[in-house]
Amino acid sequence: MQPISPFPRATGTADASVRPARAADAPAIARVQAVTWRTAYRSVLPAAVLDDWDEGAAAQAWAAAATAPPTPAHGVLVALEKEVVVGFAAYGPPELAAGDTGHPDGPTTELATLLVEPRWGRRGHGSRLLAAVADLARASGAARLQLWLPEQDTVSARFVESAGWARDGWVRTLDTGGPPLREVRWHAALDEEGA
Known about the structure:
transferase
């Protein structure tokens, strides 16, 4: 993955940016994931998943994803505020759902996750991460982005919808070890103007 330049905050200050993740960011990424899931997904994920969270194992997995991605099309970005990791996004080629033959508009990049720690929300970090993934996907030749969201996650759904995304009709159900988790797929076309 080629380095990208920081994306300044919407207010014009240089306190916020997005850059490719480094191995040293992995503990912070795991912390953001744990805090965000425990805050935003307490009613969606089984308590055992949240309460038995192994932050050390998650940090190791994120370090590997940042330093040795499975393909050149995979990547992890971090959002920073005053050099503190406050959010992250992971992306790569999509895993096609059963019966999905790909999109007729061309190659797709899947946003595997985009999380901003709730106390850092509403400062533009999610928008900067989304824009950076769109720029990288477009540069790699992708024609569209897609993302799976839990059906109950209305906050994230409103966020991506405000950025021009729409549901594409695909739904999947995941086994969580508790009640099944139903997810809806969202997508956005990439063009010269952005997603």
